[in-house]
Amino acid sequence: MSSTTRTLDAWLEYLERVHPVGIDLGLDRVAEVARRMGLLDEPLASRIITVAGTNGKGSTVAMIETVARAHGLSVAAYTSPHLLRYNERLRFDGSEADDAALIAGFEAVEAARLADDPVSLTYFEAGTLAALWLIARRRPDLAVLEVGLGGRLDAVNVIDADVAVITTIALDHAAFLGNELEGIGREKAGIMRAGCPAVLGSGELPASVRQSAQEREAPVSALGQDFEWRVGTAQGGFSWQGTASDGTILSLDDLPDPGLPLDNAATALQALVAAGIALDEQRCREAMRDVRVPGRMQWLGQWCLDVGHNPHAAGYLAGRLAAQPCRGRTWVLLGMLGDKDADGVIEALGSVADEWVAATLGGERAREASELASRIEAHGGKVAYQAASPEAGAEWLAERLAADDRVLVCGSFFMVAAILSWKQAHAA
């Protein structure tokens, strides 16, 4: 099949085959193709914000995007991975890129990588370059780019950002980033640029992050020092205080709780200020009320879906559920990949889980339900069922849920994607 006749699904299948390694960190190959595509000649957008971190990237990107749009800016947002459709990875003014646009982007990447000496690209690298090419053709007021893994050597980092955001840093992807937090912090801080603002969205970042900023003489705004959030006077809301580049103290009051981590909400607001955007209180209220992030504390009736897959994310979920007690049982439908810290996740959720359903995830990094069940029981949890798949676990639970029960689905993007599809099929 020629490249000009490939469907989007065919392109994605081709990109998975053409490079034998799924993750191949390094910028030399990506930068060469980006150069051929003209992506390094001028900025993609009037302002560019890059977001890196272990947890909270997706929600931070979504809140930056939504607040900026509420202020009348044209916005492109690139995130990964997707849940149901590849199109989710690239949004223009809140709408997913259509198949035709993505195909055009892949065709542009393919032509550039095969020109002169062919260059091998991973699935993620090709997708990132296609997204950057499409963003460059639109030249929006703001581009918000989520780093896929790490920072310094991630394909997104081929682009110089005006503002670098670091959300949190915890142990994850140890096979690629190592298991030492200072080193991980330095890798993620690699998205910073000399003299450009850096927004630090956690009060518990490794010292290497600030050291990296100092080495680059990047002005730092840090959560808890230069910006913060507090419980607001309005029920369920919050207030925000930040700092402008000239040191002026800024404040926004009675913002609605977006149902997402408020550390990330505060970070998103400070990132926009660092990018030179003047915030209007009423428009920020509207944005925080409207922001939605699929798969992040997403409630579908009695079911709460969250892609959290490490202990830090699981701890946040446990805290949110503890603050919203239910009269019935709290079930946890858990599926995790084999290279994730299952013990840490189980321990973090143990305080809110009444009963567990362990599910097997397929693929080369699969973890069997039986192994998960053994770990849950070792931590004192009650395993009610071992499911051969996420869908099988959902079917079993659906027949047994009481009206006052709730279900937390978590452990993996694959887990949430499977249950989202299952819920959609049952709603049809």
From TrEMBL:
Extent of the signal sequence: none
GO MF annotation, one: tetrahydrofolylpolyglutamate synthase activity
The Mur ligase C-terminal domain, residue ranges: 295-413
Keyword Oxidoreductase: no
Reactions this protein catalyses: (6R)-5,10-methylenetetrahydrofolyl-(gamma-L-Glu)(n) + L-glutamate + ATP = (6R)-5,10-methylenetetrahydrofolyl-(gamma-L-Glu)(n+1) + ADP + phosphate + H(+); (6S)-5,6,7,8-tetrahydrofolyl-(gamma-L-Glu)(n) + L-glutamate + ATP = (6S)-5,6,7,8-tetrahydrofolyl-(gamma-L-Glu)(n+1) + ADP + phosphate + H(+); 10-formyltetrahydrofolyl-(gamma-L-Glu)(n) + L-glutamate + ATP = 10-formyltetrahydrofolyl-(gamma-L-Glu)(n+1) + ADP + phosphate + H(+); 7,8-dihydropteroate + L-glutamate + ATP = 7,8-dihydrofolate + ADP + phosphate + H(+)
Known pathway: Cofactor biosynthesis; tetrahydrofolate biosynthesis; 7,8-dihydrofolate from 2-amino-4-hydroxy-6-hydroxymethyl-7,8-dihydropteridine diphosphate and 4-aminobenzoate: step 2/2; Cofactor biosynthesis; tetrahydrofolylpolyglutamate biosynthesis
Catalytic class of the enzyme: ligase
Function: Functions in two distinct reactions of the de novo folate biosynthetic pathway. Catalyzes the addition of a glutamate residue to dihydropteroate (7,8-dihydropteroate or H2Pte) to form dihydrofolate (7,8-dihydrofolate monoglutamate or H2Pte-Glu). Also catalyzes successive additions of L-glutamate to tetrahydrofolate or 10-formyltetrahydrofolate or 5,10-methylenetetrahydrofolate, leading to folylpolyglutamate derivatives.
Protein name: Dihydrofolate synthase/folylpolyglutamate synthase
Species annotation: Billgrantia aerodenitrificans
